[in-house]
């Protein structure tokens, strides 16, 4: 098939970023704390907090760094147990372990969202919760916050895949105590690497700022209540996970593009979902009612197919030019919990395992035109027909 879309190609960085980078290169002023005020990282934090409706933001080296700092800033005791979904990226349990805590995994259903019965059953045994809105799929935040608030358990939102998603009209990442976002190259805003955290808690952000690497009096360049900082100076370790001015200069000009990217991503996702759901072998889970999504990829489950048939489907799609990641069947996949050999405790999650063995993932950059979406859908549908055509004909 000709004109196979490149599903890994990022959208071009706006020209304004090049101008900002040229200015930085001329000045050599790449460290966020060199300028007395209005450094690119500082301006990014102000813009991002305002955009999300949060009081404070801290830009750091990655979303993983933001998650780690969030846990450290909450001053959890060593070996505190932190609940995470069984379906997330390996960096999330890694951040928990880096923070001297213990990951506790809960079940995730066929719709990629937290199984609330298993979540509630394990909640009394944990001191904090990280909710990964994995691949942009929002779990039931109403139920989660009700359960956690009743027990005074802090909630951190891993919103790496959910910039622009809303729940009852409120931005994902602003519902829990802290929200953490990613600027990695496959996210809605692309700096190659980078992350940011948001919160309304002045003391918490002050602790995170100092631990991120605001040594000596560099914390004075942050727009936070100064008394929140003063009591923590030289009392917290420095992990040096700062963002550079270069990364901020790449990110800031993309923020005005975000609304368009969200709109196009949602339109493309819903168009593709309708085409794939026409097959009896493919099912794209529905969103939850309060959720308005901001997708840049599509996930779907293979229905009524054996493991060899699912593997054959993935092989057929790849042969036609579109790679399908089956989370549980891709060797060494960092999203399959049984590959996290570094966990101090192991968890048997049969529901999550069964879902991952049939859940598929295809990149779908928001800038793809309709004809490219048609090509991707035709490849996926033709590939599943290659495998299942005779079975369906026999059954009719």
Question: In words, what does this structure look like?
Answer:
The chain is an alpha/beta fold. The protein folds into 2 domains: 242 residues, 3-Layer(aba) Sandwich (Aspartate Aminotransferase, domain 2); 139 residues, Aspartate Aminotransferase, domain 1 (Alpha-Beta Complex). Helix content is 39%, strand content 14%. It has 13 helices and 14 strands. The strands form 3 sheets. The protein has a 7-stranded mixed sheet, sandwiched between helices. It has a 4-stranded antiparallel sheet with strand order 10-12-14-13. Strands 7-6-11 form a 3-stranded antiparallel sheet, with no helix packed on it. Strand 4, helix 6 and strand 5 form a beta-alpha-beta unit. The two termini are 29 Å apart.
Could you give a quick summary of the protein structure above?
With 396 residues, the protein is an alpha/beta fold. Helix content is 39%, strand content 14%. A hairpin with a 2-residue loop joins strand 6 and strand 7.
CATH architecture of the largest domain: 3-Layer(aba) Sandwich
Which geometry do the CA atoms define?
A: globular
Beta-strand fraction estimate: 5-15%
Q: In total, how many beta strands?
A: 14
Strands side by side in the biggest sheet: 1-9-8-5-4-2-3
What is the name of the CATH class of the largest domain? Alpha Beta
Q: How are helices and strands ordered from N to C?
A: HHEHEHEHEHEEEEEHHHHEEEHEHEH
Spatial extent as radius of gyration: 22 Å
Alpha-carbon distance between the two ends: 29 Å
User: Major sheet, described briefly?
Assistant: 7 strands, mixed
> How confident is the prediction overall: mean pLDDT?
94
Unreliable segments (pLDDT under 50, ≥5 consecutive)?
391-396
As for the CATH topology of the largest domain, it is Aspartate Aminotransferase, domain 2
Computed structural class = alpha/beta
Counted up, domains total 2
Number of continuous helical runs: 13
């Amino acid at each position: 098939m000709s004109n196979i879309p490149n599903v890994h190609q990022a959208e071009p960085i706006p020209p304004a970023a090049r101008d900002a980078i040229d200015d930085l290169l001329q000045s050599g002023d790449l460290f966020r704390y060199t300028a007395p005020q209005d450094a690119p990282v500082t301006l990014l934090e102000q813009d991002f907090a305002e955009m999300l409706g949060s009081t404070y933001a801290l830009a750091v080296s990655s979303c993983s760094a933001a998650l780690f700092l969030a846990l450290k800033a909450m001053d959890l005791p060593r070996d505190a147990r932190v609940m995470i979904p069984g379906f997330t990226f390996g960096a999330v349990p890694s951040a928990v372990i880096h923070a001297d805590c213990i990951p506790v995994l809960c079940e995730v259903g066929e719709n990629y969202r937290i199984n609330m019965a298993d979540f509630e059953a394990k909640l009394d045994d944990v001191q904090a919760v990280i909710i990964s809105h994995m691949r942009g799929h929002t779990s039931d935040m109403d139920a989660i916050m009700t359960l956690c608030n009743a027990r005074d358990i802090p909630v951190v939102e891993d919103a790496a895949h959910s910039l622009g998603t809303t729940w009852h009209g409120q931005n994902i990442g602003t519902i829990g105590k802290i929200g953490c976002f990613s600027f990695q190259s496959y996210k809605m805003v692309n700096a190659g690497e980078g992350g940011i955290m948001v919160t309304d808690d002045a003391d918490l952000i002050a602790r995170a700022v100092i631990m991120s690497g605001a040594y000596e009096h560099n914390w004075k360049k942050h727009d936070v209540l100064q008394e929140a900082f003063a009591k923590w100076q030289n009392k917290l370790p420095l992990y040096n996970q700062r963002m550079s001015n270069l990364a901020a200069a790449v990110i800031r000009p993309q923020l005005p593009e975000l609304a368009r990217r969200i709109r196009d991503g949602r339109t493309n996702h819903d168009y593709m979902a309708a085409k794939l759901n026409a097959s009896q072998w493919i099912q794209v889970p529905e969103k939850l009612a309060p959720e308005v999504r901001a997708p840049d990829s599509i996930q779907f489950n293979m229905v009524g197919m054996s493991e060899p048939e699912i593997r054959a489907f993935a092989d057929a799609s790849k042969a036609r030019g579109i790679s399908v990641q089956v989370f549980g069947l891709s060797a060494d996949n960092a999203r399959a919990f049984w590959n996290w050999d570094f966990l101090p405790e192991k968890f048997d999650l049969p529901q999550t395992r069964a879902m991952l063995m049939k859940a598929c993932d295809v990149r779908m950059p928001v800038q793809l035109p309709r004809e490219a979406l048609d090509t991707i859908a035709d490849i996926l549908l033709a590939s599943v027909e290659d495998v299942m055509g005779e079975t369906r004909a026999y059954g009719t």
